[in-house]
Design a protein that fits this description.
The structure holds 2 protein chains of 2 kinds. By secondary structure, chain A is α/β, with parallel strands linked by helices. Chain A has 8 helices and 8 strands. Chain A has one domain: Aconitase, domain 4. Chain B is an alpha/beta fold. Chain B has 2 domains: 271 residues, 2-Layer Sandwich (Aconitase, domain 3); 177 residues, 2-Layer Sandwich (Aconitase, domain 3), CATH 3.30.499.10. In chain B, α2 crosses α5 and α13 packs across α15. Classes of the chains: A alpha/beta, B alpha/beta.
């Protein structure tokens, strides 16, 4: 996984709450057996609407998504994260994420920045007035920065310390766990023999 | 220290605890299916890793498999590739697989319990959010993403941040004709789709002590629909009776030892939860959804709500959007809503008890003209059991379609889909836009309401049907 320290880019305001992972990528797009190629399925049902925010030319090339509360609820499909990344997004900002989505984002290297909904509202207003304004998501300082002058946004965001550390270092979770394999073996040595196995019952 | 059931199960599975890190938890059972696993197996191959515990892993084909002509090759080449990829991966890494056509093939959350692999006190994960189903047995069970699937395959563990705990106390008993599905839909309407976020929920109270295992599975299944990480019910005699004699349940002396352990899996008296919610089961009535998330529901006897009734601006906007998508007018009685399709199945309501309840309503009646009813058993074993009881004949004589096992129209990944604008009454778990097919409109209902709706052509309860059969 690549290291993530800070990112600055154009941002798209997605003024919707409860964007579940079926909206991010419908099930019919989940048949691929690779980790790539899901960008076309991103928000598939909404992309046919010319007024949809990602279809607006002023938001071309957006790399930060600013979404309403409860983004990424529902299905556990990590394809939702891959589709956002394939499209070009590096960070999503929202006041509440589905737990599994947020976990998946952290594993796949997409920054899910949790903020107060007021910050989302201010970003939406700013981006609707000036779509080209760059938004910075600084993971080292846990800050979101955008705009200048009186309307300038400089707010902190939440992310758990461990995920932040892994993203900053670009570390793969499995490698970390395998470095503690002796502890896994120790656990297995005293694990209850009553627990079932999937070995076909005789 | 007084601890909750969830905390007990958690503590028993901590492999490593270190300041500043999530706990590393041991996973007792890993359930695998074709959609969320191919990239995980690929990751293992790329890194030269093996599956650490194939003997704690089991796979089946459910999400994208057809429910007709299951003895023929899968027609859709992309679906076929995905299923064949699972078969190759299971063969290469030594994982037990129940493929299409096998009696133990079916929805992964129906297969685990029916094999007796789902037991109290276990940690269970699967690349599917409805893994919460298994919490009905007092297991700690939750859905994970594909990166985590790979992590479990490689290490049989998962790093997890300790969740908060919540109790949902439901006193009283559900009235006649009111099902666990109605209860959970009413709960989600009250707490909202994000209400359980960050919490493991324990469902407690008299309503659960008198509820069947199938009913507990229905409620735990939908924990994720209000954002909870997992749902649990403490094991009791109903749990043990369900498990006894199943292929992977302990036998003989082991059974007695297991019972001793399982009986201890309860929340201590005076243990505290981070949050508690109270509900009165006796006040619940048949409940259905009108909108595009599972929290947008009302009693079947009520009307489609008016968006202006919502104080919260985001909820109002969501309601406006939902009514437009659903093609509904505020104030319309829910009972007046006509449907094109009835779907009976899914990991929420595709078990034998659900099919029996619906068949009892359908028996001697006919599915309304212009209504298509799909009956999709949760597993091959459920299908065989239903056929041995003659339920298939009841459904077929009424004009319903009797299908093979799988996820089917719950998520419309296989050919079982709604056409744009079509409306369904569905016993599944999600009424999201396009969930059952692009432009499809879904009302979530119980198996009893599904059956009565199929007969009358509009949303209805069995009590609404004429008594003359």
């Amino acid at each position: 996984m690549e290291k993530f320290t800070a990112h600055t880019g154009k941002a798209a305001p997605l003024r919707r709450a409860n964007v579940d992972t079926d909206q991010i990528i419908p099930a019919v797009y989940l048949k691929r057996v690779t980790r790539t190629g899901f960008g076309d399925g991103l928000f598939a049902a909404w992309r046919s609407d010319p007024e949809f925010v990602l279809n607006r030319p002023e938001h071309d090339g957006a790399t930060v998504l600013v979404a309403g509360p409860d983004f990424g609820t529902g299905s556990s499909r990590e394809h939702a994260v891959w589709a956002l990344q394939d499209y070009g997004f590096q960070a999503v900002i929202s006041s509440r994420f589905g737990d599994i989505f947020r976990g998946n984002a952290g594993k796949a290297g997409l920054l899910a920045a949790l903020v107060d909904h007021k910050v989302v509202e201010r970003l939406w207003s700013l981006l609707e007035q000036d779509p080209a304004t760059p938004v910075t998501v600084d993971l080292e300082q846990r800050l979101i920065l955008a705009g200048t002058g009186e309307d300038a946004i400089r707010d902190s965001f939440d992310i758990d310390d461990y995920t932040r550390w892994r993203l900053l270092e670009g570390l793969d979770d499995i490698g970390i766990t395998l470095s503690h394999v002796d502890e896994v073996e120790a656990y297995e040595a005293h694990r209850s023999p009553l627990r079932p196995t999937t070995v076909p019952a005789g | 220290m007084r601890t909750t059931l969830a905390e007990k199960v958690w503590e028993e599975h901590v492999v490593r605890r270190h300041e500043g890190e999530p706990d590393l938890l041991y996973i007792d059972l890993h359930l695998i299916h074709e959609v969320t696993s191919p990239q995980a197996f690929d990751g293992l191959r790329l890194a030269g890793r093996r599956v650490r515990r194939p003997d704690l892993s089991i796979a089946t084909e459910d999400h994208n498999v057809p429910t007709v002509d299951v003895d023929k090759p899968i027609a859709d080449p992309v679906s076929r590739t995905q299923v064949e990829t699972l078969r190759r991966n299971c063969a290469e890494f030594g994982v037990r697989l129940h493929p299409l056509g096998d009696a133990d093939q079916g929805i992964v959350h129906v297969v685990g319990p029916q094999l007796g692999l789902t037991q109290p006190g276990m940690t269970i994960v699967c690349g599917d959010s409805h893994t919460s189903t298994h919490g009905a047995f007092g297991a700690l069970a939750f859905g994970i993403g594909t990166s985590e699937v790979e992590h479990v395959l490689a290490t049989q563990t998962l790093p997890q941040v300790r969740p908060k705990t919540m109790a949902v106390n439901v006193d009283g008993e559900l009235p006649e004709g009111v099902t666990p599905k109605d209860l959970v839909l009413a709960l989600i309407a009250q707490v909202g789709t994000g209400g359980g976020q960050g919490h493991v929920v324990e469902y407690r109270g008299q309503a659960f002590r008198t509820m069947s295992m199938e009913g507990r599975m229905t409620v735990c299944n939908m924990s994720i629909e209000w954002g909870a990480k997992a749902g649990m019910v403490a094991p009791d005699d109903a749990t043990f009776a369900y498990l006894e004699g199943r292929p992977h349940a302990p036998k003989g002396k082991d059974w007695e030892a297991a019972l001793d352990y399982w009986r201890g899996l309860v929340t201590d008296q005076d243990a505290t939860f981070d949050r508690e919610i109270h509900l009165d089961a006796s006040a619940v009535t048949p409940f259905v959804t009108w909108g595009t998330n599972p929290g947008q529901g009302v009693p079947l006897a009520a009307n489609v709500p008016d968006p202006s009734d919502f104080d919260d601006p985001d909820e109002r906007l969501s309601a406006e959007r939902a009514l437009a998508y659903m093609g509904l007018q505020a104030g319309t009685p829910m009972r007046d809503i006509r449907v094109d399709t009835v779907f009976l199945g899914s990991c929420t309501n595709g078990r034998i008890e659900d099919l029996r309840a619906a068949a009892e309503v359908i028996r001697g009646r006919s599915v309304a003209e212009d209504v298509r009813m799909l009956v999709v058993p949760g597993s091959g074993r459920v299908r065989l059991q239903a056929e041995s009881e003659g339920l298939d004949v009841i459904f077929k004589e009424a004009g319903a379609e009797w299908r093979g096992a799988g996820c089917s129209m719950c998520l419309g990944m296989n050919p079982d889909q709604l056409a744009p604008g079509e409306r369904s009454a569905s016993t599944s778990n999600r009424n999201f836009e396009g969930r059952q097919g692009k432009g499809g409109r879904t009302h979530l209902v119980s198996p009893l309401v599904a059956a009565a709706t199929a007969v009358s052509g509009h949303l209805a309860t069995p009590a609404d049907l004429s008594h003359a059969v």
